[in-house]
C-alpha cells in the first residue's frame, strides 16, 4: 500500500510499504478514506519529537471503512464507516474505566521508554514515534487499529467524512482544552494559537458559556478565521509590544479567567527572551519553547485556569512557577481523552449545532502529502487544515 | 476468563498448607511491601534502599577498569604520564598493574559495596605509591611528574579508604541483623499497629532496617540475585491468583519461558528460552499456597538454575484493583562475571520481571499483549515487545 513516511527532518515521502495485518485478536484493518495533517505532525516533521525512526508511517487523524476484524471484535463488521481516535486504549484498565483513555495502561508496548523520559507512560498513539509505541500511522491507504472493539466510532450515513474526520483528534482536543477550564457564564477566555485546535477551542469555549473569547496569533489569515468563523476578538502579537498588558486592557485590568495554550513546544515570538529560548533549544538546554505558555500563565487572572492543549515533549527553562504558586493558578493539561468526547460531539454535529468543516482550507490526494506538510508547516497559501483524500 | 475450579483444586490439594505456614510468613515479607503492610504513622523504607557508598564504589570500579585497560593497551603513555621513562621493564610492570586494575574494578562493579574488593583497590594504591616513590628517587625519570602522580594516587587512596570504610560499616549493620527479624505478618489496611509485627522484639528492626537485612542476607550468597516488582491490576485477587496458580499459563506473559508443565502434587517442569537457542530446564515445587493471596515456589534440589519465586495478590480498597507483588531469587547464568558484564552494559536485572508483570497486566485487563508491529521486524532491535502469545482464551482452549 501507499503510506506517508517520515524520512528525516522536514522530509516526508509517500512510499510503498507492506499492507497492515491483524496482529492481535482485538485489531481491525481500516481502509482509509480521509486523513488529515495535524499540528503535532508538524512537530514530527520538524524532527523535534524524539524516537521517530526513518520510514515510520505517520498520521493519527483518520477515518475509513472496516475491511477486516480480529476474532474478538464483535461490535464492528466489514463495511462499517468509522472514525478512529488517535489515542490507543484498551477500555479495561483503571485509566480507561475512569474515562482517561489517553492514559491507557496497556496500549504502549514501549512504556519502558516513556517511563525513562517521563516517569510513567501515557497511552500508545498512532504514528507518533516509538516512545508512544511506534504504531504505524493513518496517512496511508490502510491502517491497523488495535482495540478496535473499544476505540472506533461508527459514522452515521448522514454525516460526511469531512464532518466526522476531526472527531479523531483536533475537535475533541479543542473541546477538552476549554472544558477543563470549567468555564462559567460571563467568563473571558484567551486562546493562544489560531491553528485548528485553537479554532475549536474558541468554538468550544462559546459552546460552554464563555461570553468573550480573545484569540492571539500573528498570522493574519488565521486571525481572520478566528474572527469570522469562530467569533473571537483577535490580537496580533506582531502589532503590540506586550500581550499581557493588552489582555489587561481588554479585561478591566484583571486578566482572562481562563488562558488556553493551543501553540505548544514550537512557539514563536519576539524580543530577547524569545531569542534566548531559541538558543537554549538549539543547544539542547531545553527541548520545548515555552514562549506562549509563559504568556498564558502571566496573563491569567488571579485564581484563574491555564489549560495546555499544545504539545510539549520534554523540559523548558524559565518556567514561571512563582506566578502560578503565588497567584493560585490552576494548570490543567493532557493528551486528549478522545474516546469520551466522540459521541457527544458527533451528536452536536448531527444536530447541526457544530460544523467542524470550517477549518478545511486544502483538500488533496494522499500522494501530495509532502506538499501538504510544506504549505501547512510554513503557513503558505493561507493553509489552516489539509485533508488528504485516499483512494 | 478464569477457570474458578482451579481455586477449589488448590485448596483441596492442600498438602503443603499446614507445613508451610512459617514459609508463608517468611515470603510475605520477602515478596515486597504492599501499602497494606505499612500502617499509618509509620516510617517506610523501600525494598531497594540506596546503600551508602554505592555510587562512589561504582565510580571507583569504572575508574579501575578504564585505567587498567589503558595500562594494558598503552603502557608507555601511562608511564610517561607518571614521569617514568618507558623501558621494557616498565612496560611489563604497567601491564601487570593494568590486569590488577581490571580485576579489582570488575570485582567492585559486580559486588557493589562488597568490602573485600574495595580493600583490594586500597592495597593497589599502596603498591602504586611504592612504585612511584622509587621513580621519584631515580635521576633519569621526571621527578615533577612523578610527584604529581604521587599526589593523585594519594587522593584516590583516600577515596578508596573512605568508600571501603563506609561499606564496611554498612556490612556490619547487615551482619548484625538476623534474617528472622524481618518476618512480618500481613497487617490490616489503615489500622495503626502498636504491637509491631512478627516476633516480639522485631519492632526496631522492622522500622529502622526492614528490607536492608533481607537484601544483605541474600547478598551474602555469592552470585545470588533477587529482583522484585509490583503492578496494580484492575481485576480481583481471586481471578489473578487463579490464572497464575495454573503455572502452565506463565509462558503466556513471561517471554523467557518456553513452557511450564504441571506434573502433579504441586510440582512442575519449567523450560526457558535461553540465549543462543539452548534450553535450560528445571523442576520446581510449590512451597506456599494461599488461595487468592499468595503462591511461592522454588526449584527442586539439583536443578541447573537454582531459583525461587513468590507472588502476592493484595486487594486495594475502594475497588481499585489488586496489587501483584513478585519476587524472584535466582543464580544467574555465568555467575558473578555475568552480573559484572550486565552491570557494565547497564542491563537492569529488574527489567525482565517488570516487563513480565506489565504483560501479565495486559493479559488480565485487555485480554492480549499488544504488538506495535509484526514481531519479526523488531527481533533483536528493540526490547519490551512481547512475543506472539496466545490470549487467556487461547490458553483455556488449549487446556480444553
Written description of the protein model:
The complex is a heterodimer of chains A (391) and B (400). Chain A has helices at 39-45, 94-97, 111-118, 161-164, 170-179, 196-207, 220-228, 243-250, 271-282, 291-299, 321-326, 338-351, 369-377; strands spanning 2-8, 11-16, 28-36, 56-57, 61-69, 81-84, 87-88, 124-125, 142-145, 153-154, 188-192, 212-217, 233-236, 258-261, 305-308, 330-333, 362-365, 386-389. In chain A, strands 3, 5, 6, 9, 10, 17 and 18 form a seven-stranded mixed beta sheet that branches. Chain A has a six-stranded parallel beta sheet with strand order 13-12-11-14-15-16, with helices on both faces. In chain A, helix 5 crosses helix 6, helix 5 crosses helix 12 (338-351) and helix 8 (243-250) runs parallel beside helix 10 (291-299). Chain A has two domains: 2-169 and 336-389, Quinone Oxidoreductase, Chain A, domain 1 (Alpha-Beta Complex), CATH 3.90.180; 173-333, Rossmann fold. The mean pLDDT of chain A is 96. Chain A has 391 residues and is α/β, with parallel strands linked by helices. Chain B is an alpha+beta fold and 400 residues long. Chain B folds into two domains: 5-45 and 222-399, Alpha-D-Glucose-1,6-Bisphosphate, Chain A, domain 4 (2-Layer Sandwich), CATH 3.30.530.20; 54-174. Chain B has a seven-stranded antiparallel beta sheet, with helices on both faces. In chain B, strand 2 (257-264) and strand 3 form a beta hairpin. Chain A binds chain B through residues 21, 23-26, 72, 88, 90-94, 97, 105-107, 109-113, 124, 130, 133-136, 146-147, and chain B through 232, 234, 320-321, 351, 354-355, 358, 361-362, 365-374, 382-386, 391, 393.
Amino acid at each position: 500500500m501507499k503510506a506517508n513516511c517520515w524520512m528525516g527532518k522536514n522530509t516526508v515521502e509517500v512510499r510503498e510499504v507492506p499492507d497492515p495485518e491483524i496482529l492481535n485478536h482485538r485489531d481491525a484493518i481500516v481502509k482509509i478514506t480521509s486523513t488529515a495533517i495535524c499540528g503535532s505532525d508538524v512537530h514530527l516533521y520538524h524532527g523535534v519529537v524524539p524516537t521517530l525512526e526513518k520510514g515510520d508511517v505517520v498520521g493519527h487523524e483518520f477515518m475509513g471503512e472496516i475491511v477486516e476484524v480480529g476474532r474478538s471484535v464483535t461490535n464492528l463488521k466489514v463495511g462499517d464507516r468509522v472514525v478512529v481516535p488517535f489515542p490507543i486504549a484498551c477500555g479495561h484498565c483503571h485509566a480507561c474505566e475512569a474515562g482517561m483513555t489517553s492514559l491507557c495502561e496497556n496500549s504502549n508496548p514501549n512504556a519502558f521508554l516513556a517511563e525513562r523520559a517521563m516517569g510513567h507512560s501515557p497511552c500508545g498513539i498512532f504514528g507518533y514515534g516509538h516512545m508512544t509505541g511506534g504504531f504505524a500511522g493513518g496517512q496511508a491507504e490502510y491502517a491497523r487499529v488495535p482495540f478496535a472493539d473499544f476505540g472506533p466510532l461508527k459514522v452515521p450515513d448522514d454525516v460526511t467524512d469531512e464532518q466526522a474526520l476531526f472527531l479523531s483528534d483536533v475537535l475533541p482536543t479543542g473541546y477538552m482544552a476549554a472544558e477543563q477550564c470549567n468555564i462559567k457564564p460571563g467568563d473571558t477566555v484567551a486562546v493562544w494559537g489560531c491553528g485548528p485546535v485553537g479554532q475549536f477551542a474558541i468554538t468550544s469555549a462559546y459552546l460552554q458559556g464563555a461570553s468573550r473569547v480573545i484569540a492571539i496569533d500573528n498570522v493574519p489569515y488565521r486571525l481572520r478565521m478566528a474572527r469570522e468563523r469562530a467569533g473571537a476578538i483577535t490580537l496580533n502579537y506582531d502589532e503590540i509590544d506586550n500581550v499581557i498588558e493588552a489582555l489587561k486592557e481588554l479585561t478591566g485590568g484583571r486578566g482572562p479567567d481562563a488562558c488556553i495554550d493551543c501553540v505548544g513546544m514550537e512557539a514563536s515570538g519576539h524580543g530577547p527572551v524569545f531569542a534566548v529560548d531559541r538558543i537554549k533549544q538549539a543547544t539542547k538546554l531545553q527541548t520545548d519553547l515555552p514562549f506562549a505558555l509563559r504568556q498564558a500563565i502571566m496573563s491569567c487572572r488571579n485564581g484563574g485556569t491555564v489549560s495546555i492543549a499544545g504539545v510539549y515533549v520534554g523540559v523548558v527553562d524559565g518556567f514561571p512557577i512563582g506566578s502560578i504558586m503565588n497567584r493560585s493558578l490552576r494548570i490543567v493539561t493532557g493528551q486528549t481523552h478522545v474516546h469520551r468526547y466522540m459521541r457527544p460531539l458527533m451528536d452536536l454535529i448531527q444536530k447541526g449545532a457544530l460544523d467542524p468543516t470550517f477549518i478545511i482550507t486544502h483538500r488533496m490526494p494522499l500522494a501530495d502529502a509532502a506538499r501538504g506538510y510544506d504549505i501547512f508547516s510554513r503557513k503558505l497559501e493561507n493553509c489552516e487544515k489539509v485533508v488528504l483524500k485516499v483512494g | 476468563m478464569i477457570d474458578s475450579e482451579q481455586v477449589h483444586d488448590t485448596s483441596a490439594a492442600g498438602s503443603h498448607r499446614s507445613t508451610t505456614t512459617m514459609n508463608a510468613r517468611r515470603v510475605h515479607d520477602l515478596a515486597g511491601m504492599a501499602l497494606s503492610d505499612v500502617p499509618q504513622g509509620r516510617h517506610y523504607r523501600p525494598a531497594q534502599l540506596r546503600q551508602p557508598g554505592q555510587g562512589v564504589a561504582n565510580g571507583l570500579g569504572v575508574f579501575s577498569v578504564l585505567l587498567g585497560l589503558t595500562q594494558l593497551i598503552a603502557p608507555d603513555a601511562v608511564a610517561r604520564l607518571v614521569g617514568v621513562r618507558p623501558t621494557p621493564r616498565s612496560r611489563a610492570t604497567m601491564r601487570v598493574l593494568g590486569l590488577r586494575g581490571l580485576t579489582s574494578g570488575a570485582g567492585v562493579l559486580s559486588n557493589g559495596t562488597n568490602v573485600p574488593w574495595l580493600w583490594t583497590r586500597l592495597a593497589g594504591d599502596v603498591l602504586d605509591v611504592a612504585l612511584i616513590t622509587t621513580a621519584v628517587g631515580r635521576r633519569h625519570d621526571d621527578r615533577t611528574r612523578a610527584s604529581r602522580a604521587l599526589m593523585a594516587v594519594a587522593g584516590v587512596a583516600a577515596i578508596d579508604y573512605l568508600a571501603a570504610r563506609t561499606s564496611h560499616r554498612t556490612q556490619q549493620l547487615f551482619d548484625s541483623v538476623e534474617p528472622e527479624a524481618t518476618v512480618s505478618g500481613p497487617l490490616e489496611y489503615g489500622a495503626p499497629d502498636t504491637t509491631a509485627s512478627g516476633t516480639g522484639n522485631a519492632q526496631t528492626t522492622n522500622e529502622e532496617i526492614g528490607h536492608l537485612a533481607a537484601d544483605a542476607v541474600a547478598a551474602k550468597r555469592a552470585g545470588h540475585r533477587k529482583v522484585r516488582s509490583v503492578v496494580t491490576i484492575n481485576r480481583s485477587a481471586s481471578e489473578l491468583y487463579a490464572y497464575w496458580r495454573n503455572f502452565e499459563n506463565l509462558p503466556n506473559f513471561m517471554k523467557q519461558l518456553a513452557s511450564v508443565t504441571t506434573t502433579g502434587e504441586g510440582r512442575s517442569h519449567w523450560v526457558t528460552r535461553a540465549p543462543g537457542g539452548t534450553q535450560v530446564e528445571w523442576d520446581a515445587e510449590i512451597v506456599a499456597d494461599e488461595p487468592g493471596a499468595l503462591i511461592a515456589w522454588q526449584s527442586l534440589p539439583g536443578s541447573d538454575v537454582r531459583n525461587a519465586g513468590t507472588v502476592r495478590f493484595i486487594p486495594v480498597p475502594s475497588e481499585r484493583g489488586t496489587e501483584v507483588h513478585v519476587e524472584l531469587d535466582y543464580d544467574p547464568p555465568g555467575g558473578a562475571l555475568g552480573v559484572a558484564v550486565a552491570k557494565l552494559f547497564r542491563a537492569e536485572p529488574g527489567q525482565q520481571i517488570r516487563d513480565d508483570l506489565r504483560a501479565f497486566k495486559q493479559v488480565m485487563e485487555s485480554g492480549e499483549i499488544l504488538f506495535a508491529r509484526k514481531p519479526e521486524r523488531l527481533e533483536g532491535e528493540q526490547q519490551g515487545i512481547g512475543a506472539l502469545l496466545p490470549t487467556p482464551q487461547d490458553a483455556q482452549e488449549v487446556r480444553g
